[in-house]
Amino acid sequence: MEERDIQYFEQFGETIQDEYGGIYSADGVWLLSAPIGRHKTYKIKDGTQIIAHYSFMGRFDENDDMYINSCNIESIEMPNSVVYLENEAFWECQELKTIKLSHSIKKIPCSCFYRCISLESIVIPESVTIIEMGAFMWCKSLRSVYLPKSICEIEKGVFTSCESLEKIVVPYGTKDRFIAMLDEESARFVVEESLVN
To answer: Is 0.90 topped by the overall pTM?
Structure first.
């Protein structure tokens, strides 16, 4: 393994793998590294509480003596047991198109989805209160974002270089509040949900 990977994994002691090759802490609390290979969909194990930084970027393959840039995962399902995402958790998960987030997370951290260039749409759950700087930076295929009323703060540059962005959908009656939170470039995409579904 690459020195960075060895040092990072060593702090957790023993690790376990799921049937897809995802690496978890022995107690199953941390997802340390997503599976690498041909898997198009990935369901994170129930009981997982924390998604480690760079979990979906890739890791060193000791068999081929080379660093593999991420996985081919296009769809992720996250259980509600997940309460915390570290910064850069999905950094450069470049094939990712859709993700179902846990309804227990409180924030979308800094650079969480940086350069997830295939991500098309995302629904932020009601549990989230803050979206940190650059969370979706360079998500160049991102067209729609759905934000809940629970959001209290959106930091700068959250949607920087999201060149395909068409709409940021917010709950009815909250448009002005969200426009005030967003930078000028992103605010122009804010639309309210219709009362008629």
So the answer is: no
